[in-house]
Design goal:
alpha/beta; Rossmann fold; 10 helices; CMP kinase activity; Cytidylate_kinase_dom; cytoplasm; nucleotide-binding
Length: 221
């Protein structure tokens, strides 16, 4: 890591799926004039590439090679994978579920670590995911662990999908979310856990703006 990267401030926001991490991270970055890292998108992109290339998900080395050579470009309007716009594709539930299954792969995580740390540059970075504060940026200036009741999260995800015109079943989403939480918490590699020194915020009954303002206040003080 170069000297500039070392002094660039970082705010990490970790938490379970659909806790609002991405939206909150984007709004905080906008308020501070910083860049963002959606680490979940990188894992989803890997999952989509695995599907596209018909790589067996249980082939750890093959999956890691896919990640290492991921042809990805992030731009203002979304993200492309191997030249194809995939912003909506990577948000589909089956892609997210596969990403969760692939995430414990140590070789995959190692392949993606340097790619994630490269996002750290001035004036600053807001990074959201599962292990941003524990593994990727352990020296972050502020670490947030954003949680919410699983039913509230399932209802949020249901509304997101319906608003996008994607059919969804709340009970299925709730079951999938509980299973994904279990996988994320129980995995032996980089499990979902609050980083040392992290501030835990329960957003179940908070608006997005209230959550954002709480985190900005913590950073500024």
């Amino acid at each position: 890591m170069n000297d500039v990267a070392q002094i660039a401030p970082v705010i990490t926001i970790d938490g379970p799926t659909a806790s609002g991490k991405g939206t909150v991270a984007s709004l905080i970055a906008q308020a501070l004039g910083w860049s963002t890292l959606d680490s979940g998108a990188i894992y989803r992109l890997t999952a989509l590439a695995v599907l596209n290339h018909q790589v067996p998900p249980d082939d750890a080395l093959a999956v890691a090679q896919i990640a290492e050579h991921l042809d990805v470009s992030f731009h203002v309007n979304g993200v492309t994978l191997e030249g194809q716009e995939v912003s909506s594709l990577i948000r589909q539930e089956h892609v997210g579920n596969l990403a969760s299954r692939l995430a414990p792969n140590p070789a995959l995580r190692a392949a993606l670590l340097a790619r994630q740390r490269a996002f750290r540059r001035l004036p600053g970075l807001v990074a959201d995911g599962r292990d941003m504060g524990t593994i990727v940026f352990p020296d972050a200036d502020l670490k947030i662990f954003l949680v919410a009741d699983v039913l509230a999260r399932a209802e949020r995800r249901y509304k997101q999908l319906i608003d996008k015109g994607i059919s969804a079943n709340l009970e299925d989403l709730l079951a999938d979310m509980r299973e994904r939480d279990r996988r994320d918490i129980d995995r032996s590699v980089a499990p979902l856990v609050a980083a040392q020194g992290a501030h835990t915020i329960d957003s179940s009954k908070l608006t997005i703006d209230q959550t954002v303002q709480t985190i900005l206040s913590l950073y500024r003080t």
